[in-house]
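Preliminary data (for renewal application), pyridoxal-5'-phosphate complex.
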Amino acid sequence: MKFTPYRRSTDRYLGEDSASRSLYERALEVMPGGNSRHTLVMDPYPIYAASGRGCMVTDVEGEERIDFVNNYTSLILGHSHPGVTEAVARVIGNGTAFSLPTEADIRLAELLIDRIPYIDQVRFANSGSEGVLLAVRAARAATGRSKIAKFEGCYHGIYDYAQASDSSRPRNWGDSERPATTLEPSMAKSLETEVITLPLNDIAVCSALIDEHRDDLAAVLFDPLPAALGLIPPDVEFVSALRAKTRECGALLIADEVLSFRIDYRGACHRLGVEPDLVSLGKIIGGGFPVGAVAGKAEVMKVFDHRGGELVHHGGTYNGNPVTMVAGYETMKRLTPEVFEELERLGDRTRSGIGEVLGRHGIEAVATGRGSLFATVPGNEPPRDFRAVFTARSAAPQLQRIAREMFNRGILMGARGLFGALSTPMGDAEIDRFLEAADGAAEHVLGA
Ligand SMILES: Cc1ncc(COP(=O)(O)O)c(C=O)c1O
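Predicted structure:
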């Protein structure tokens, strides 16, 4: 694919006649905080997008940047892939949604089942949050129990049972051997007892907490590559002990692969060597359109089957709509094992390059992530739990500032440290530009 030639961008969006600023002022009038998604918040206001093609995004001031965040990891083929766009255009011309099923969701389900070794069946939804919600509801229906356990600090979308404790802080997180279940004011107080918060990588503490609730525990929800923990996978031994513990007490193990599915042809749990009972999916499987899914063994997934008198009633006006399903299928079919290998090679180059650049500037940090996902955590070795990541990040705000400065050097980045996701239109030239920008940004931030 050919790209628009790279032009070094400036901070024109901050200027006197900024189109982004006037859009933000309009947005503030009609949406609280000016948006419908907190991940868009940027200081002093966001850069507004005008268009995207391949790995480039053009903003409303006409400036181009290489997109290293890809709608928070969901666009693995970059923007407006011609094959996907053509297929979607054909679907749109034939009707976008029906109160009748189509073949489109069957084809995407078949593809996913063919790839993920431990699933027999899938149900689709419209967001990763719903994929997580459906997995939790399925686990409750399958076990007849109501509580769930999740790991401190991990983000799983906006279902309140899964969102509890995702924003734990030193002032409220409590004892490390009994992490508090922290809640937003919008969440029901009863979640304090319904959700058990676990510390990652400490099987002794996790087992003790699971045992305390063993008769009521429906599931343990975990992320095989949690972004909030700096994209550091849990220890293999820990995950295998957790698998054994959940089996022993009759709770299901749910893997949230909404984000991490993009690291491997067969997904992140396959990489870790663990077989969960249920998996939540989203992001890349929608090919750039809103999507979510829950998948698992037929034995568990039967809770959705109306023929047995469904135990989880699953509605959703746009579930499995042909636009998303065709975009997802057209995207996933292009992601062959060779494509994942190339993304991994570029990911490895990015990670080692970041380590080198930061080292050159005397910044102690480890480059983390797997496959096409990368992040950076301050310190000289990868932290092993949320508290360590949080403490390291709070003590070293310069990574955040470097990421921010990279916007001015032609790179779109994730908000938290140097967090990003590669896409297939990228090659070595884009990684070179990224590292060049990181170098310049580090020099700028440290010299300021
Ligand atoms: C691990 C994980 N789970 C769930 C979600 C929620 O997905 P969605 O934003 O599609 O609701 C996200 C979103 O970033 C995620 O990263």
